[in-house]
Amino acid sequence: MLKARGCRVDMILGASTVAKIYAPIEGKRSVNSLKIYTEDGSTGEMGKVTDPLPSLISEGAVDVIYSCGPMGMLQAISGITSNTDVVHQCAVEESMACGVGICMTCVLPVRKSDGSIAMLRSCIDGPVMDGSSVAWELVGKNAMTP
């Protein structure tokens, strides 16, 4: 949809191996450019999707990063984009047992503007979150315990 609106869209797709790369042809059709990274070097460039980000950001080639994938990768991207003007919107991977916010299994610690922590329900308040507001160091922990 971004490309259809005239926005330039560049995609970095990555996985541990070529066997785990999903739909690269479809991905290529929906973007202006596609770069593939595999950790074992079996296709594309050897490395992780986070590898080119610092240089792309310093070159001014990135305004917004939309990411999805393992929580560790999302956290790494948030770390790379912190202290920059780049917006990081990430689709978090939390278990969503009920999908309607009742069970509270999908809660994610997020920093509010006053610095306090709120536990947001990924299924209701997300799953796309502002990566800079996620309290990554508290993910998977009881964030309400002092």
Automatic annotation (TrEMBL):
Transmembrane segments: none
Cross-referenced InterPro entries: Dihydroorotate_DH_ele_sf, Dihydroorotate_DH_Fe-S-bd, FNR_nucleotide-bd, PyrK_electron_transfer
Name of a matching Pfam family: DHODB_Fe-S_bind
SUPFAM superfamilies membership: Ferredoxin reductase-like, C-terminal NADP-linked domain
Location of the Dihydroorotate dehydrogenase electron transfer subunit iron-sulphur cluster binding domain: 93-134
Name this protein carries in UniProt: Unannotated protein
Species per Swiss-Prot/TrEMBL record: freshwater metagenome
Taxon lineage: unclassified sequences, metagenomes, ecological metagenomes
